[in-house]
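Hi Y.,

Following your request, here is the sequence exactly as I used it, all 145 residues.
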Amino acid sequence: MKRLGVEISVFIDRSDIDTAPNQGVLNTLKDIFTQRFKGNVWLLESCDRLTKDCSETWLNDHKFLQDQTGIRPKQILFARDSIGMAVIASALELTHFVGTEPKVLNCMAQYVRNPILFKPDPAELLGDKVLSDRVKIARGWEDVQ
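Below is the corresponding structure, written out as tokens. Let me know if you'd prefer a different format.
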């Protein structure tokens, strides 16, 4: 059974917290969450208490949860760091994880069969930021299978 974890920061632009996701993205996500993964989807984030509160407010304000995507509140989990997120991913037996930070994906690669780096900045892929060879690159949601 396919089980998906998605880092909340994939959806939220922290530099513009008031920005709502566009309807096309929400429709695509609902299809991915309900059809491809049959509701076996969790949102995860590593953060402090303030960021957790802001993330929950954003998700609620934009009706991101069940109304728009089929995600239920109990499917949103927070950890203090990427290691904590990896422990959660392991406990949930996630088969896929979509994230935005190479260091998080490298950590997830030990626990998740299909770690996916979502829309990376090309600069993140250069220099000393080595990605595990298991990490796949997704340029958009159509690449998340």
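The mean pLDDT is 83.

Thanks again,
Q.
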